Every structure is written in structure tokens, then in C-alpha cells.
Amino acid sequence: MLDFRIDTFLCVCRHLNFTKAAKELNITQPAVSQHIHHLENEYGTKLFTQDGKKLFLTDNGKLLYKKMNQIKNDDESLKEILSQNNHGLKDISFGVTMTIGEYIIADPISDYIKNHPDTNLKITFGNTSELLKKLSEGVIDFALVEGYFPENDYETLLFSKEEFVSVCSAKHSFTQKPRVIKDLFPERILIREPGSGTRNILERALALNNYSTSDFRNFIQVENMHAIISLIEKDCGITFLYKAAVASGLQSGYLKTIPLDDFRVKHDFTFIWPKDTVFSEEIRAICEEILPVA
């Protein structure tokens, strides 16, 4: 069990405010200050700095938060595991980004379920930034993401490499045949919301050519991949996404890819989990079993 003063520290880190932390913990603000001073003496370092009324974590404070937050998450996970063992069941909670969850994960997960009938699975959908937050909070054990993440903070396992393409309706007509990215700028682009892996990959790929999404004539922002694909099928614009997400539309002839000389992108789908967790080996074994059959 963690020292109760660590709980106070983690609460202050979440709020960056002593008063709000005191209210959540139902203790006085002087008690919060006392707990923090005790930890600063214990570890021999300042954990917070203050600029006016604003509170900031020091570098050592950030390090302590990262380590202690993971220890707390592991402690809570261990309690759950021990409780599950009493009932002969096992719970696994993981997150997937929208594209992966809707178009990629069903087959490998179905195989895993058949091999582990006594396992309860909790699958959370979210964009990459949302899943990173849930990992930090201990809400999920691991995630399968398509977007970018701070690699030094996580253990990783490659799930697959996927082709990222430009797509439009099969009946879409261009004023002139597009050959490079800028030839598409007169078009309306359909894009995901900021924070989504698909959006991040597109923005980075465009930035390599000194372009951005604002270079397109106008845009439609949609937070659901199915809706984007439906709008593309109805010839409401063009989009950039993973080829796997539109495989059926391409095969049926409703959609077509837009070959571009200066846009050839492949990106990793990656399992990630906290680097400091004591359950790293168990998580890796689960992820290895979920990997698609070569």
C-alpha cells in the first residue's frame, strides 16, 4: 500500500492546485502542504514551483509522478487480479483507435477469445491522445494505436504496417488528373478530429512537403470513420486514410485510390503499454497472441 502522502502528491499533480486537492481528499489545505513538504524532505528535492498563483511540477516532481502513478496503477491492477483468481476468471482491458477497432481487430480478437473462453475482455475505443490518457490513469492495460506517441514512455510491439492512401468516390471527376498532392488542393477534404491517429499521420505527411490541411479548398471534420467513408461514397470530397479501412469499398468498385507521385506512406499499428509496469511480461504475451497470423 502506498504512503497516504503519495496519494496527496498524485492528487496535487492532477489538479496543480492545493485547494482543489484538499477538497477532493477531504482534508485541509495546510495538511496537503504538510504532506508535500514531508515528501520533499524524504526525497531531498523540490517537487513543485510556483509562479504567482500557478503551480508547476519540477523535473524531479514529474519523474516522481510518473513512477508513483504507475506503482499506484499496478497496485490497483494486482488487487483486481487477485480478486479474479478467486472466481477463476481473468479481466483484460485494452484500448484501440477507431480505425483499428472498426476494421482491423475483429479477426485476431475472435481467435484470442476462442483460445481463452474464461477471459473477460473490455475494449475501449478512442483516438490516440485519449488512449494515452487512459493508459496513464490505469483505466486500460495496453493499447493498439495508429498515431504518434512518446516512444520512450512505453514498451511496444509492432502489430502491422498499413498503407495510408488518398481515396475518393469511383464516380468522382477531377478537372485534371492529379499527380502530386498539390493537385488535390482544389478539392474538399474530409478529415478526422485533432488528436486522432489518422489526422496526425496526414498532417505529418503533408508537413514533409511544407503543406497543411488548410491548403485544401475547404474541409469537413468528422469524428467517425464510417461517416467519412459514407460521405466519400456519396462523392462529397476526398480523404486520406488507411487502405484497410476502405478495402471493401475498393473491392466493390464504389471507391478508388488516387495515386500520387509524392505521397507514398506506410505507418505502424503498434501495441503500447507503460514501460514501468510490473505486468510488462504478461502484457507482451497477450499482445503476441493477438498478433495477426502472417
From TrEMBL:
InterPro entries for this protein: LysR_HTH_N, LysR_subst-bd, WH-like_DNA-bd_sf, WH_DNA-bd_sf
Keyword Transcription regulation: yes
Keywords: DNA-binding, Transcription, Transcription regulation
Superkingdom of origin organism: Bacteria
Signal peptide limits: none
A Gene Ontology molecular function term of the record: transcription cis-regulatory region binding
Keyword Transcription regulation: yes
Homology family: Belongs to the LysR transcriptional regulatory family.
Name under which the protein is recorded: DNA-binding transcriptional regulator, LysR family
Native organism: Butyrivibrio hungatei
